[in-house]
Structure formats: C-alpha cells, structure tokens
Amino acid sequence: MAHDALSDGLIDLLRRNDPAMAALMEKERQRQETTIELIASENHVSPAVMHTMGSWLTNKYAEGYPGARYYGGCEFHDQIEDLARERAKKLFGCRFANVQPHSGAQANMAVFMAVLKAGETFSSLLLKDGGHLSHGMSLNFSGVYFKPVFYPLHYDLAHPESERIDYDAARKLVREHRPKVLMCGYSAYPRTIDFARFRSIADEVGALLVADVAHIAGLCASGVHPSPFPHAHIVTTTTHKTLRGPRGGLILTNDEDLARKIDKAVFPGVQGGPLMHVIASKAVAFGEALRPEFRTYCERVVANARALAAALIRRGFRITTGGTDNHLMLVDLRAKSADLTGADAEKWLEAAGLICNKNGIPNDPRPPRVCSGIRLGTPAVTTRSMGPEQMDAIAGLIDRVLSGGGQADVLASVRAGVKELCAQFAMPGMAAPVEV
C-alpha cells in the first residue's frame, strides 16, 4: 500500500521502538483504508492536519492565553494560538474565538460555567430526539448541576413537520419555564435549523441563545447551512466532523463581555494547559476550510447524503423526516423488518466493512442499547471523493447485509465488495489507491 512518507516513517520508528503499538496502528490504518466510514461524526483529515498533531508542539505547557502565560518559552505558541483564533473568527464571521477546549463537551461545560449558576434552568432537545449528552442528559454534568427543560419534536407521523423541531411548542415551553439559556444544534437531526426563529424565542424571555453546531460546523462555515451568526449569542462546536480538523472544541461569540467570561471558564475554570499541538492542527484545518474548494466539498457532502437517503428509500427503508438537508440521516429499520434492531444492524454492517452507529429514532419504543435505527453520514466518504453513484452502491450493500439477516456468506460477499470499492477511492494523502 502507498501512504504519505510521514505516516510510513512513524510506523517504521514504532517498529523499532514499540513493535506492539506499531502493529496495532498498522491494523487500524488498514481498517480505515478498507472500510466505508459512514459514522456522521467522523471524517478523514488531511496529512497536514494529522501530522501537525504529531510534532514537537506536544512538548510544551502553555497555561493561560497569548500574552498572559504561566510558563516561559511560549513566544511561538502565542503566535500559533493567535493564528488559530484569527482563522476561526474569519471562518465563522465573528469577533471572538476560544480555541482551547479539548472537546465539544468541554466547550459546552465552559459555556455553562460562564453563564449559568448551579441549579439554574436551560432548555434543549432531549438526547433521544437527537440532542447531545452535554445538553442535559441526567448523568452528564449538564443534567447533574443544572436544570434542563426539553422542547419536543413533532411526533405525529401524519403531520407535515413530523419528527422535526416543534418551534411553537418550544416557544410555549420557554415562556413557561423562562430558562436563562436556550440551546439549539444537535447530534442526530437531519434538517436545517432556523437560528433566527430560535433567537426570537430566546429574546421573549431574555435568554441567551447557545448554538452547538458540532455536527454542521463545516456546512455553516462554508455557507451550505445557514450560519448561527448573528442570531446566537454563543456558538460551540467540535473541530472534527464536517469541519474536517483534529478532535477538539471551539467557542465563538460576538459579545466582548461573554468572551471574557468564556475565557475564564475555559481556563482556569474547566481546563489547565491547552493542547498546543492540537490547536496548531486546528489552525491548519481552519486554513483548509477557508479555501474555495472547501465549500465545494461541503456541497458534495450534502448531495451525497441526499443521494444515499433516496437510494435507501427506494430499497424499502424509512428515513426519519423523509430525507435530509445536511450530512446525516436516521434510518428507521422497522420499515424493513419489524424485528431488525439498530444493535444488530451496526454489528452486521461492521462485519461487512460498513461502519455506522446504532441510533434511536424519534419516539423510539426500544431502549438506547438496542434501538430501532442507525445513523449514517457522508463526510468521510465524500472526503474519499465518492459521489452519488457510489452512494447508490453503498445503499445496495447495506440492503444486502440487512436483508441477509447477518448470514456469514452474505457478510463475506459484501465485505469483498466494500474492499473493491475502497480500492478505487484513496484515503487523503495517499499516493495511490489501496491494493486489495
């Protein structure tokens, strides 16, 4: 197999110094190269993004912020963090950016700490309806130390807005409970978010609107999905997923007073030293996303998602909300087979080289570990330059696996087809397609 020289050099170094780790990393590289990645929250980064993380920047502590560090020797780290912040602000069209959060959940934790006191109320969407753990799940910090009240989706399948956000119900709930924060932005919601409408609801009770755009950040930054600015007071996001950067978090705002509170909440509030090698990698990813071709990529992500959803519908699957406006879709497996669960589907598809995650569907009667659906996304396959023709082929492979009930001969046959398809579409930075 052909790879970029730095990756090969890393494996060679590890073979000499840590053969056990080298073997595991090589297996993972082969797994990624020969499987079709359909997890909506994952992507394939460029070699520049990946190798910036594996650099001498990992050696340095840099607690604090540029110009106000608690360690010496941070001259160039200040410049790196400033570069990341400036690129983030330009990318999202806002005034202030904190690039230090280690993850999207920690970005949300910092925002909660900045604008809420323990026990105060906020409003969000339930996890089972497409929200996130850090939006009020009972075992998460957000549900333990704060009081969530949840607005609903339309649950009536006969309703034209079925399984979409019920904005009228959200307004009624917000008027009743008067939360200090109204959250929008989700982990499993396939439709466009009306940020302006959410802002009007927040303004009625003087709440802050916080948009967690972790999943759609790349689409928002490129203009393929409406931007949360100028409507949201605060925006949080991860830097991977559709933004195609390293795993990490980011907080954005236009409000100077909120920016000061957020900075203090991130450090020293919820974190110590920032991960400067990751911040540098974030800067590289933001630079890539500022290029014109990134919008083309995001347009293709959405086109591929719509093509995949349509191809699955033609094969008898039900897609919640009837389709998708972004990079992901929820597949209700019960339309294909009343006995088929998300847990079984995930396991069988992985054995065939099709990587996805089980996921509850709105009003799912099954428990989360079993559930009735799977979540599929197109960021990673689009990065590999696949298009609508390949989405139809992937839908056919998914159908074969799930219609075959997990039979070993079917899984083996589909696995061979997956390897053949992957051989035609190289991973980022590879000099040539993988050899099968």
Give structural notes.
The protein is an alpha/beta fold and 436 residues long. The protein has 16 helices and 15 strands. Strands 4-10-9-8-7-5-6 form a seven-stranded mixed beta sheet, sandwiched between helices. A four-stranded antiparallel beta sheet has the order 11-12-15-14. Strands 1-13 form a two-stranded parallel sheet. Helix 8 links the parallel strand 7 and strand 8. Helix 3 packs antiparallel against helix 11, helix 5 packs across helix 10 and helix 7 runs parallel beside helix 8. It starts with a helix and ends in a 13-residue tail after the last helix.
Radius of gyration: 22 Å
Mean pLDDT: 95
Number of helices: 16
For the largest beta-sheet, the strand count, sense and barrel status come to: 7 strands, mixed
**CATH homologous superfamily name of the largest domain?**
Type I PLP-dependent aspartate aminotransferase-like (Major domain)
In which range does the helix fraction lie? Answer: 40-55%
Low-confidence stretches: 431-436
Total domain modules: 2
Adjacency order of strands in the biggest sheet: 4-10-9-8-7-5-6
Beta-strand residue fraction: 5-15%
Task: State the name of the first-level CATH class of the largest domain.
Answer: Alpha Beta
